Amino acid sequence: MTKDRPLSHFDIVVIGGGPAGMMAAGRAAELGAKVVLIEKNETLGKKLLISGKGRCNFTHNEFDIRKFAEKFGRNGRFLYSALALFGAREVINFFESRGVKGKAEQGDRIFPEKGNAQDILNVLVKYLAEGKVNILFNSEVTGFKQEKGKISQVLLRDRQISADKFIICAGGKAYPQTGSTGNGYQWAEQLGQTVIAPVPALNPVKTSEDWVKELQGLSLKNVSLKLFQNGKKQDERFGEMLFTHFGVSGPIVMDMSKNIGALLKNGPVKLILDLKPALDFKKVDKRIQRDWGKFRGRMFKNLLKGLLPLSMIPVIIKLSGIEPEKQVDHITRDERNKLVHLLKELELTPTGLLGFKWSVITSGGIALKEVNPNTMGSKRIENLYFAGEILDLDGPSGGYNLQECWSTGYLAGESAAKRH
Ligand SMILES: Cc1cc2nc3c(=O)[nH]c(=O)nc-3n(C[C@H](O)[C@H](O)[C@H](O)COP(=O)(O)OP(=O)(O)OC[C@H]3O[C@@H](n4cnc5c(N)ncnc54)[C@H](O)[C@@H]3O)c2cc1C
Do residues 269 and 254 make contact, with C-beta atoms less than 8 angstroms apart? Predict the structure, then answer.
C-alpha cells in the first residue's frame, strides 16, 4: 500500500484493542497495510481476558454457517459472508496453528486447551507484532475529521492521526469497567450512521421474591425456565441457572434476559421454573407418594432430600405452607398438590435487568442496513468500516459473540487492506 506518505500517515487506523480490533488490525497488516491500533486502556483485550470467567469460550463447535448465523436471530444473515471467510473452523485453525488448541466442552463451547484466556490474547499480540502494527495505548479517541464525504483524521485527546481507512471496533456498552463505554455509537451518529438504541443482553435478572436471597449461590442444572406475559408463553429454555442475592442469573436466564427486558417495557412478566422437567405433574406426584409410602410416620421436612438441593428445602417448605414437622402420612392431597406445583411451576417475578454494568453483551448498535456485509464497509462513508460488538448483532452465550468479533474483524481488516 502507500509508501510515499509521511510517518504519521497510516493506511489503516483501527480503533479499539478488543477481539474485533486486534483481529482487524492483524489481518490488515498481514496483507501488507501500515496499521495503527488505538486503545484507550493501558493494555489490549481487557474484556477478552475476563471472558468465559477467564477461560475464554472463544467460539462454538458449529461449522454450518446458516446454523451459526441463526443464533443471532433475524440479523444473523448479515454474518454469512464474514462466517464464510473466517468462521468457527477457521478460527479454531487460526489459534491452533499458532500453538493454542481448542477444546470442546459441555454444549459444544470451545475453550483454549489450557483454559486460559491469556493464551488467546498472546496469540493476537504476536499476530499484531508479526504485522508490525503500531499500537497506541492510553490513547482515547474523541472523534473524527471529515473532508469531502470521507474521514481524513481520527482525533485523540492530544493529537490527530491521518489515514486512508478507518475501522471502528470500540465495542458496545456492556461491562464499561473494561473500557467499552459506548463511545463508538456517538461517533457513528455524528458521522451519519443510524444506531439502533443499545440495550443490555446476556444480563442477570432482578426478581421481587425475598426468598431468592436465601438461595444465593445455588446453581441448578437441567431445569426448564418459561417466560410468560399476559398468560402467553414468550420464551422457554432448558439448562443451567443460578440464584443470586438480587434474583437469577446463569446461562438460561442470561440468554432470556433480552426478551425479559423488552417485554417488561409493555407490562409485568412471570418466570416459571420447572425443577423436574423430565417428569410431568402426575409422575412427580406418584414419585412423592411412592417415597412417602416407604417412610410412614417420618416428618415432611426430612423427606425432601432426594427431590431438592439441600439449600432449597427450607424455602420450598415455607412456600408450601405445610407444617415442617407434620408426618408425611398426615399430609393432605391438596398439600401434596401444592408441593408438586412448586416443583413444577415455581414462580419468579422479574422486575428488571441488572443493567450494562454487568451485561455480557450489548443488543443494538450500528444499523446493519447501512453496512456492507461483504466488506464491513459503511454504505454512507466509503473509507469507514465497523466490526465486533458495536454492530447491531448479539448472540447467545456459548462462544457466538467472540466468533462474531473474529469474523467481522477479519473481514473488515481484509477489505480495508485491499484496494477496491
Ligand atoms: C464478563 C464477560 C464474559 C464474556 N465471556 C464471553 C465468552 O466466554 N465467549 C464469548 O463469545 N463472548 C464473551 N463475552 C462477550 C465478548 O467479550 C465481547 O463480545 C467482545 O469482547 C467484544 O469485542 P469487541 O472487540 O467488539 O469490543 P471490546 O472487547 O469491548 O473492545 C473494545 C475496545 O475499544 C476500546 N475503546 C472504547 N472506546 C474507545 C475510545 N474512545 N478510544 C480508544 N479506545 C476505545 C475499549 O477500551 C476496548 O478495549 C463476555 C463478555 C463479558 C463482559
Answer: no
Answer whether residue 269 shows pLDDT above 60: yes
Q: What's the confidence (pLDDT) of residue 3? A: 41
Q: CA-CA distances (angstroms) from residue 391 to 124, 374, 409?
A: 21, 14, 11
The atom of ligand 1 lying closest to the CA of 401 is 11
- Residues 110-133: tens digit of each pLDDT: 999 999 999 999 999 999 999 999
Provide the whole-model pTM: 0.93
For residue 48, the CA-to-ligand 1 centroid distance in Å is 6
Return the pLDDT at 1.
43
Query: Is the CB–ligand 1 distance for residue 170 below 6 Å?
Result: yes
Which parts of 200-325 fold into alpha helices (H)? 251-264, 281-294, 313-320
Give the strand pairing for 134-136 and 35-38. parallel
Contact predicate 317/300, CB 8 Å = yes
Task: Output the nine-digit C-alpha cell for 270.
Answer: 412471570
Contact 349, 211 (CB under 8 A): no
17 within ligand 1 shell (Cβ under 6 A) = yes
Which domains, ranges and CATH numbers included, belong to the chain? 9-199+360-417 (3.50.50.60), 204-354 (1.10.8.50)
Closest Cα to atom 20 of ligand 1: 402
